[in-house]
Amino acid sequence: MVDSHASDPAYAAQLGWTVAPAAAQAERVEPAVSPEMRLLRPADDVDSPEVTVLIPAVNEEATITEFVAWCHDGLRAAGTIGEILIVDSSTDRTAELALAGGARVLKTPKRGLGRAYIDALPFIRGKYVIMGDADCTYDFRQIGPFVAAMRSGTEYAMGSRWKGSIERGAMPALHQHVGTPVTTWILNRLYGSHFSDIHCGMRGITRAALYRMGLESQSWEYASEMVLKSVRMGLATTEIPVTFYKDRNGRLSHHKRAGWFSPFQAAWINLRAMFVHGAEFFLFKPGIALLSLGLLLTLPLSVGNITIGPVTFSLYWMLIGLTMSVLGLQSIFFGCLAAVFLDYTGRARQRWRQVFGYTGTVLASGLLFALGFGLSVAVLVHYVTHDFSLPSPASVIDHLGIVGLMFMIMGFSTFCFTLLLHATEVHYGDRSDVEAVG
Fold it and tell me: How do residues 193-242 score in pLDDT, each as one tens digit?
């Protein structure tokens, strides 16, 4: 039978799927929740599995039989009842061989590695999910530690080739010594995590956490999305040492099949996922530094030029300080909004709404704008009363005018940010309800 999630109308509608009739689901070859997919069940299909081994596959007939056998060995060694679910987009005999070996096969169009995992969600029956590749590069005879970790309360068990072993020739030198270590370091700096191998393809996650995670990536970046969302969600996480083998003779990796540029494209889209989901890292703290330096340049000069040794800090330094202050404040505000938009727990949203309470912040921004306007009026008055000419750059009036302009910009920016922050509280009803009424 198709898992109960697959026949949940609300869940299916959320993902844009349609549910097959109950009578059709009872067939050996089951129509899936989308006309483009169908589920094939083996003759010795298991009931109520504790573990789902979830594997996307494209043209892996050279290794799929041995891989499925490895999975059965690993499930027996772990002392668990499990299912093997192959998400297949092959044009060769991969599906036929997997089915003969005792695996379930979900036939889907070829739409990307991440999309394969998304397509499989309604068909996962196990409480625990173990992911990987069907090419026998990861040893699925050793899934016991993943199962044990999740039974003990771990929600996300990340495999680590660096804590395990890498067979000589299994990874290109550029990947092993540059690509993976560098991108892992970047992610750890962005998110304050401590992973040793963010690109390991073998990983375990509870089905409940996987559903809550809401994967969106369609391609290779699913790997980074899972890692960074596990941090955002505060999942109980551990790393499991794994063994990584080189490709079997005659088999080409998917990167090699796609061409020389494929690894670089995969690295770029993974970095994009890291940066987008960690946007506040580039905004909030740098913004504080920029604002502080800008104010340090601007405010002391509000009473006139200051000379320190051979250097005279003049009106032009104030303009630099004004620019830095405005950019810094905007960066802080964008960082706060990014934290709110990317917030899974709701704590960031609550914290920033308390810090920038609507009434107090709007009043403060209005007062700041009014103060700035008052300081800037002095420059306008001088301009009108002195034959439409500005005061000299050394004049205190000009200096106060620059401070006034800065206060006006900062006051208005704060007001706009406050509106946007509190607009995140606004919610509408289900669009389907509106369409039904229409």
Answer: 889 998 898 999 999 999 998 888 887 678 888 888 898 888 999 999 99
Angle, alpha carbons 130-234-271 (nearest 5°) = 75
The amino acid present at 233, given as its one-letter code, is M
The tokens describing 357, both together, are 């309470």
Compute the distance between CA of residue 182 and CA of residue 188 in angstroms, rounded to an integer.
Answer: 10
Contacting residues for 258 by C-beta, under 8 A, at least 6 apart: none
Q: What share of the chain is helix, strand, coil (3-state, %, to 5)?
A: 55, 15, 30
Reduced to 3 states (helix: H, G, I; strand: E, B; else coil), residue 87 is: strand
DSSP state of 51: E
Average pLDDT on 12-26 reads 39
Q: Which CATH class is domain 4-277?
A: alpha beta
Q: Cβ atoms within 10 A of the Cβ of 233, count?
A: 16
Residues 6+ apart with CB under 8 A from 103: 42, 68, 71, 83, 84, 85, 86
How many angstroms separate the CA atoms of 275 and 279, rounded?
6
Q: Where are the domains of the chain?
A: 4-277, 280-423
Q: Return the pLDDT at 263.
A: 63
* 170-179 per-position pLDDT tens digit: 887 777 788 7
Q: Please give the pLDDT value at position 35.
A: 74
128-131 vs 51-57, strand pairing mode: parallel
Tokens found for residue 273: 């996922």
3-class secondary structure, 334: helix
List, for residues 405-423, the tens digit of each pLDDT value: 999 999 999 999 999 999 8
Return all residues near 80 (Cβ < 8 A) that are at least 6 apart: 49, 50, 51, 147
- Cβ atoms of 121 and 17 closer than 8 Å: no
The residue whose two tokens read 């590749």 is 133
Produce one character per residue of 63-74: b if its CB has 16 or more CB atoms within 10 Å, e if not: bbbebbebbbeb
**How many CB atoms lie under 10 A from the CB of residue 410?**
22
- Asked if 129 contacts 50 with a C-beta cutoff of 8 angstroms, the reply is no
Could you give the 3-state DSSP secondary structure of residue 60? coil
What DSSP string describes 227-281? HHHHHHTT--EEEEEEEEPPPPTT---HHHHH-TTHHHHHHHHHHHHHHHHTGGG
The DSSP line for 274-329 is HHHHTGGGGTHHHHHHHHHHHHHHHGGGGGS-EEETTEEE-HHHHHHHHHHHHHHH
